[in-house]
Amino acid sequence: MGRAWLPLLVFALLAAAPFAGLGEGYLLTILARAMIMGLAATSLWLLVGGAGLVSLGHAAMLGVGAYAVVALDDARVTEALVVAPVAMAAAAVFAVATGAVAVRTSGVHFIMITLAFGQMAFFTAASLAGYGGDDGYTLYGRNTLAGRRWLEDRLVFHYLCLGLLAAAVLGGRALLASRFGRVLRAARENPERVRAVGFSPAPYRLVAYAVAGGVAGLAGMLLANATEFVAPSFLAWQRSGDLLFMVILGGLGSLHGAVLGALAFVLLEEGLSHWTQHWRLVFGPLLVLAVLHLRGGLAGVPGQIARMVRRG
Amino acid sequence: MSFGLLLVQGLNGLQFGVLLFLVAAGLTLVFGVMDFINLAHGVQYMLGAYLGASLASLTGSFWGGLLLALPATLASGLVLEWLVFRHLYDRDHLSQVLATFGVILFLNEAVKLAWGTAPLQMAPPELLAGGITLLPGLQYPAYRLAILAAGLATAGLLWLLVERTRVGALVRAGATNAAMVAALGVDIRRLFMLVFGFGAMLAGFAGVMAAPILSVEPGMGDGVLILAFVVIVIGGIGSVRGAFVAALLVGLVESLGRSLLPDLLRLVMAASPARQAGAAIGSMLVYAVMALILAVRPRGLFPVRG
Amino acid sequence: MAEPILEVAGLRKRFGGLAVTDDVSFAVAPGGIHAVIGPNGAGKTTLIHQLSGTLRPDAGTVRFAGRDVTALPLQRRARLGLARSFQITSVIPGFSALENAALAVQARSGSSFRFWRPAAAEARLNAAAMAALDQVGLAGRAAAPAGALSHGEKRQLELAIALAMEPRLLLLDEPLAGAGPEETERLIDILLGLKRRYSILLVEHDMQAVFALADRISVLVYGRVIATDAPAAIRADPAVRAAYLGEDEVA
């Protein structure tokens, strides 16, 4: 496992960040958001890189998780140990309901139908007048953890996000290496062959879709806590595009690419938006260039450098 | 809920439907011929509206704006094809989705920079400023009827072009089997550029026509884009006929759903929740229709490829 | 004759006005190789699709191992023990040769809804996969990515995947397609070895190979089976000779 140093380095840097003189609250806030997006991107990577399912509606899963926090907050249920499982279950149920139709299709149709379901979720969120409709909903406060207000502590929240992200990456790896993951990966490369040995890909894809939905729901729950505010814009299709960009920017070669992509995306977005209000003017062309020229993604960069060095 | 209201909403739906068709036609042709997903097609619609509105105020006439905006959107389509899209034809759909997403981010922001964030207004031509009496006591804006007529006329022309000309035959053949067309010795790159520029101009045309009845603002192409995708997926990707049928269907469902559902729901529930639920269900009705159609016919109503 | 392993009765398939499969009936006895031959355009590919379950016939039945499977899709027939190989090599290029075969073993041994334990560490899967590779002489290439194998090796892997399913019938769709003379010789040797242990339905273009391998032959012409018999009788059949007029391979 010679390539393991890159993800290890990234996680080590994230773990050291609060002590590296970067303890300014603002940077930690950004890092927390980056790790949460990393969690969501990891779940999307499982679909795109693992199962070959390009979803353009993944922000809806995140949104369902975030709105679960809202609904419970509105009902004065604020214990994270209750909220998190509910958020994950809600997103997974949404994934199963929409995935049951979506996994029947493939290719462009899958992209479009996930986009359509994402839009349905978006309009539903915008119509929830009780939760602020278009304007969104401000939480009374962050969730409590085991009855204590730990999530309000920046350090605790930082390490919570980091721990969950690491768990998701490790869990995702195990999943892809398992029997289940093997069928999933094989069906991505050659569904006809997989059928010919006796597997129907659809149920495997549906389960993967549900798992990814659940993990994205958890990310949504964390995001709601990080911002203490939830709005329909969380579910906009452009956010799904952002998530796909993170996955591709990081690279489809390995699962931790999603983490790299999310970190790079969020930090770039923050940096550029500090510099100019019209940061998308730079960000858009960067995205185009990344797609055209960075084919292996960021995770593939060390390998490319190594090859160049070896070639001399 | 009167017959008059139904008539007005039906006309609104059809008029929205033909606008959607003009956007979707380019999208479905580009996808059919080049197997290329272009998310940035919606910004052509937005550019059409912006260029139409500012050129109209520059020339002092709606017609001046329209006539100048058409070649301008054609040119912008060709420039984008040359700069970005042609490098993506042999890439997977995922890369195409992302790169064209980047183009959207850029152009939405560029429009903000050039024209500001405040919505622009464009006056309809004086000739069509008034209303037409449909029923005794029921007026309908002449301009909206003109959009409907112009849209249907364009659809007819497009049909003739695709079904009755040599270029159209190539486009149809390309939608079924692009490799075959290339093997026939046709310069496929030229054909691609032609289809691309033409599609961009159709979307721009829709944008100019919509400018007087909608507010012209950044991001206005995004919503239309998503609905245009719904249209081509329902219609069957690559099928112009399918896009036409689906566009009218989507236009009607959008318009009638949003306006009639609150009234219908009031029959079974109280007024305030009926209004809320009606609006919510109304705005997702088209997506539900799409999911339903795809569940039964995964390749759309008029599938092109066997 | 023993109970046939595969029995096709009155199979029909039309595309537009063209009857591509026209009242096809034949039975495959267990053990040995039953070949289906026919000139180009005879409908061999369409027939294979209907036998393996990727195409529904318009009429007629396919019975496999005493069971009507006409309505079952490819994956259900595979689970019943019908293993097919593809005319155009169909392997999983990103997997190693071993993992390609192990996937097929996995399909018949226990649930694949297992999410935790690494599949590559399951000794039982690997052992059975290795045995299948060994049968086709590919054991030495077990660790190589399938995408990096030579064309002939891919054809061998295609066979190994089918064997790893422990099939009751091997449905081989032109296993020699695209193979060079040396590769063809090696593949024929492998098939000769396999016919002692498996029931095989072989659809093949290469006449020499068919007459060297087959125990029985069905001849398909314009969607119809015009003869089913032992190779020597087929060779002498005037109707078959007429169908192949101008093609000197039968001689």
Automatic annotation (TrEMBL), chain A:
<dbReference type="InterPro" id="IPR043428">
    <property type="entry name" value="LivM-like"/>
</dbReference>
<feature type="transmembrane region" description="Helical">
    <location>
        <begin position="243"/>
        <end position="267"/>
    </location>
</feature>
<feature type="transmembrane region" description="Helical">
    <location>
        <begin position="109"/>
        <end position="134"/>
    </location>
</feature>
<keyword id="KW-0472">Membrane</keyword>
<keyword id="KW-1003">Cell membrane</keyword>
<protein>
    <submittedName>
        <fullName>Branched-chain amino acid ABC transporter permease</fullName>
    </submittedName>
</protein>
<dbReference type="InterPro" id="IPR001851">
    <property type="entry name" value="ABC_transp_permease"/>
</dbReference>
<feature type="transmembrane region" description="Helical">
    <location>
        <begin position="47"/>
        <end position="70"/>
    </location>
</feature>
<keyword id="KW-1133">Transmembrane helix</keyword>
<feature type="transmembrane region" description="Helical">
    <location>
        <begin position="206"/>
        <end position="231"/>
    </location>
</feature>
<feature type="transmembrane region" description="Helical">
    <location>
        <begin position="155"/>
        <end position="176"/>
    </location>
</feature>
<keyword id="KW-0812">Transmembrane</keyword>
<feature type="transmembrane region" description="Helical">
    <location>
        <begin position="82"/>
        <end position="103"/>
    </location>
</feature>
<dbReference type="Pfam" id="PF02653">
    <property type="entry name" value="BPD_transp_2"/>
</dbReference>
<feature type="transmembrane region" description="Helical">
    <location>
        <begin position="279"/>
        <end position="301"/>
    </location>
</feature>
UniProtKB/TrEMBL annotation, chain B:
<dbReference type="InterPro" id="IPR001851">
    <property type="entry name" value="ABC_transp_permease"/>
</dbReference>
<dbReference type="Pfam" id="PF02653">
    <property type="entry name" value="BPD_transp_2"/>
</dbReference>
<keyword id="KW-1003">Cell membrane</keyword>
<feature type="transmembrane region" description="Helical">
    <location>
        <begin position="192"/>
        <end position="214"/>
    </location>
</feature>
<feature type="transmembrane region" description="Helical">
    <location>
        <begin position="226"/>
        <end position="253"/>
    </location>
</feature>
<comment type="similarity">
    <text>Belongs to the binding-protein-dependent transport system permease family. LivHM subfamily.</text>
</comment>
<keyword id="KW-0472">Membrane</keyword>
<feature type="transmembrane region" description="Helical">
    <location>
        <begin position="12"/>
        <end position="33"/>
    </location>
</feature>
<protein>
    <submittedName>
        <fullName>Branched-chain amino acid ABC transporter permease</fullName>
    </submittedName>
</protein>
<feature type="transmembrane region" description="Helical">
    <location>
        <begin position="68"/>
        <end position="85"/>
    </location>
</feature>
<feature type="transmembrane region" description="Helical">
    <location>
        <begin position="142"/>
        <end position="162"/>
    </location>
</feature>
<keyword id="KW-0812">Transmembrane</keyword>
<feature type="transmembrane region" description="Helical">
    <location>
        <begin position="97"/>
        <end position="115"/>
    </location>
</feature>
<keyword id="KW-1133">Transmembrane helix</keyword>
<keyword id="KW-0813">Transport</keyword>
TrEMBL record, chain C:
<keyword id="KW-0547">Nucleotide-binding</keyword>
<protein>
    <submittedName>
        <fullName>ABC transporter ATP-binding protein</fullName>
    </submittedName>
</protein>
<dbReference type="InterPro" id="IPR027417">
    <property type="entry name" value="P-loop_NTPase"/>
</dbReference>
<feature type="domain" description="ABC transporter">
    <location>
        <begin position="6"/>
        <end position="247"/>
    </location>
</feature>
<keyword id="KW-0067">ATP-binding</keyword>
<dbReference type="InterPro" id="IPR003593">
    <property type="entry name" value="AAA+_ATPase"/>
</dbReference>
<keyword id="KW-0813">Transport</keyword>
<dbReference type="Pfam" id="PF12399">
    <property type="entry name" value="BCA_ABC_TP_C"/>
</dbReference>
<dbReference type="GO" id="GO:0005524">
    <property type="term" value="F:ATP binding"/>
</dbReference>
<dbReference type="InterPro" id="IPR032823">
    <property type="entry name" value="BCA_ABC_TP_C"/>
</dbReference>
<dbReference type="InterPro" id="IPR051120">
    <property type="entry name" value="ABC_AA/LPS_Transport"/>
</dbReference>
<dbReference type="InterPro" id="IPR003439">
    <property type="entry name" value="ABC_transporter-like_ATP-bd"/>
</dbReference>
<dbReference type="Pfam" id="PF00005">
    <property type="entry name" value="ABC_tran"/>
</dbReference>
